[in-house]
Inverse folding.
């Protein structure tokens, strides 16, 4: 005989028990509904995590490729600059040679000036023609401003080379980003292990751990301001004076 | 001064080229190079050097550890060391000075800046002052 069939007091007790258990059952039903709703969500999260951890190695590789490409290009530019520098040096030597020849020529012309001046009375026509020749630019001089132009050219070649330091600095910044991305990948992998019940599932594209933190300075800056160097100089000066604070 | 043998240490090929070209432009042409601290140690032991210009962050062995090794080695302990690095924080400079680098340059450096630091160091080393 079930509870419902028992007469009298048992029937009442059964009804009471039913009434008391209804809220608990409702709560349980709700809980089951929630869990049932969460499971697909968790599956979706797991899928996203797998996708993300799968894409990260590709992102790291792309950053690596950027670094390699900029280094290749920078080295090419440095090669060109070295050739330009050699040509500038050669040009400098040529200018120096021409200057020497010009000075020798001017010195000879100066000697002729003296000779012609002494013939002014006896050979007035010669003197007149010689003076005209000299007045019309019959002098041997280098163009004005040549030295300044040459110096500027030399300086520009050097400055281009110095500006290429940006490649080293950006490489370190990129290494910093790579390292951060790799750390995120490691964290996501650990979360995924939980989903896979502790199983370290092999994810595609893994194998690159990224640069160790001490090989780069992720905070590297490319700044033309002299402030950072001046600050460092001040610290060095104070240190050498015995102020080690 | 012109015969001073420089060892330039940096894991970046670009930076080594720039430093070496700058040294040549300011009159120093006796230069060897190394790709990191470990390579530098080997070059110092096999080829010798009179002046060390080193980066800080490098694989295998950092510039700071290289400095420590040089200073701990009696035969080369007094070698002039100039650190050229992207690290510009006060703490970094102090840490380098604690390791007894002679001077410190923050990248990007300038040719006049490099010449000035080298001249200062050579002058100091010449007088025997610290």
């Amino acid at each position: 005989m079930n509870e419902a069939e028992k007469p009298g007091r048992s029937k009442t007790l059964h009804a009471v028990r039913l009434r008391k258990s209804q809220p608990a059952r409702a709560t349980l039903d709700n809980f089951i509904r929630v869990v049932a709703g969460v499971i697909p969500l968790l599956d979706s999260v797991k899928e996203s995590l797998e996708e993300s951890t799968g894409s990260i190695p590709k992102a790291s590789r792309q950053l690596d490729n950027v670094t390699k490409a900029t280094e290749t290009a920078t080295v090419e530019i440095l090669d060109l600059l070295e050739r330009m520098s050699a040509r500038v040096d050669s040009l400098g030597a040529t200018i120096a040679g021409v200057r020497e020849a010009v000075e020798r020529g001017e010195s000879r012309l100066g000697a002729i000036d003296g000779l012609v001046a002494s013939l002014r009375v006896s050979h007035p026509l010669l003197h007149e023609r010689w003076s005209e020749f000299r007045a019309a630019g019959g002098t041997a001089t280098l163009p004005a401003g040549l030295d300044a132009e040459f110096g500027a050219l030399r300086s520009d070649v050097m400055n281009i080379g110095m500006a290429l330091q940006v490649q080293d600095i950006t490489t370190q910044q990129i290494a910093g980003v790579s390292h951060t991305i790799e750390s995120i990948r490691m964290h996501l992998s650990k979360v995924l292990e939980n989903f896979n019940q502790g199983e370290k599932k092999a994810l595609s594209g893994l194998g690159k751990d990224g640069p160790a933190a001490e090989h780069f300075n992720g905070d590297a800056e490319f700044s033309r301001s002299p402030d950072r160097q001046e600050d460092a100089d001040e610290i060095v000066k104070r240190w050498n004076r015995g102020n080690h604070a | 001064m012109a015969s001073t043998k420089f060892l330039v240490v940096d894991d970046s090929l670009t930076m080594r080229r720039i430093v070496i070209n700058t040294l040549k432009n300011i009159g120093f042409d006796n230069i060897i190079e190394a790709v990191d601290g470990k390579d530098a140690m080997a070059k110092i032991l096999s080829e010798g050097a009179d002046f060390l210009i080193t980066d800080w962050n490098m694989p295998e062995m950092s510039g700071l550890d290289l400095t420590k090794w040089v200073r701990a080695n009696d035969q080369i302990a007094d070698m002039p060391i100039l650190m050229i690095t992207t690290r510009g924080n006060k703490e970094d400079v102090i840490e380098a000075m604690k390791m007894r680098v002679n001077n410190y340059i923050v990248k990007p450096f300038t040719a006049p800046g490099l010449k000035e630091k080298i001249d200062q160091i050579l002058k100091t080393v010449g007088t025997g002052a610290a």
Remarks:
- The longest helix of chain A spans residues 9-118.
- Chain A is about 75% helix and 0% strand.
- Confidence is low (pLDDT under 50) at residues 202-208 of chain A.
- Residues 3-69+142-240 of chain A form one domain.
